[in-house]
Amino acid sequence: MLPVKIIVGLGNPGREYAETRHNVGFMVLDLLARHFGAEWKFDKARKAELAAGPGVLLVKPQTFMNASGESVGPLMRYYKWEPEQVFVVYDDISFPVGAMRLRAGGSAGGHNGMKSMIAHLGTEKFPRLRVGISAPGCKQMVSHVLGKFAPDERPLLDEALTRAAAATLMTLSHGFDAAANQFNVKKEKKKKEKPAPAEKQDEATAPEGASAQTSEPVK
């Protein structure tokens, strides 16, 4: 895989959306900008806030979520970079708050921002980092993703944001596969218990009329 050149955080511009669930991509990018000591500058032509890190461009599209790709696609082509060099950080309702996962490619999974990214990059094959915001439950989807995190969710969110920033930095320094191996939590496979060895019984000492028995396998 080619080295990452653009890190994109998905979200909605404006103060009213700053702390909402849909803006965790922006939150991770802000952590990275602080880590690099980089300042955000609004680029009207690119429809994005941009910040420069060492050998990488940080991008927060200002087109609103559903049109995120309108900013990133032209930017990628201007620098003549490949889609696999675009690393996208965004929210995912399929994970609980506090969880995150790296993925090398795949569908949008119903995420409108990612639908736009795929449409404008022309492929699903670009790396991404999904940060959990939990499922809406009985709430409507729109009010959930545009709502803010509950106070008891903040510690989990802060931990996830820190881990997401660390995973992104490791992707830059050691490559995507190394970061995925370290930060993706693997599900432990259930080990099948082997049946206990059958106890052999000497026919000569078995009770009269009885035959040797084998034990049932443990299920």
How would you sum up this structure, described in words?
The chain has 219 residues and is of the alpha/beta class. It has one domain (6-183): Peptidyl-tRNA hydrolase (Rossmann fold), CATH 3.40.50. It contains six helices and seven strands. It has helices at 24-36, 69-78, 112-121, 141-145, 154-174, 176-183, and strands spanning 6-9, 41-43, 48-53, 56-61, 86-92, 100-103, 128-132. The longest helix is centred in the C-terminal third of the chain and has 21 residues, at 154-174. The radius of gyration is 25 Å and the shape is globular.
Could you name the key traits of this structure?
6 helices, Rossmann fold, single chain, 219 residues, 7 strands, alpha/beta, seven-stranded mixed β-sheet, disordered C terminus
CATH H level: which superfamily? Peptidyl-tRNA hydrolase
Multimerization status: single chain
Distance between the termini: 44 Å
Low-confidence stretches: 188-193, 198-219
Largest sheet: 7 strands, mixed
Number of helical elements: 6
Strand content: 15-25%
Taking Cα atoms only, what radius of gyration do you get, to the nearest Å? 25 Å
Strand order of the largest sheet: 2-3-4-1-5-7-6
Overall outline: globular
Overall pLDDT, averaged? 87
CATH fold annotation: Rossmann fold
| Number of DSSP E strands | 7
Order of helices and strands: EHEEEHEEHEHHH
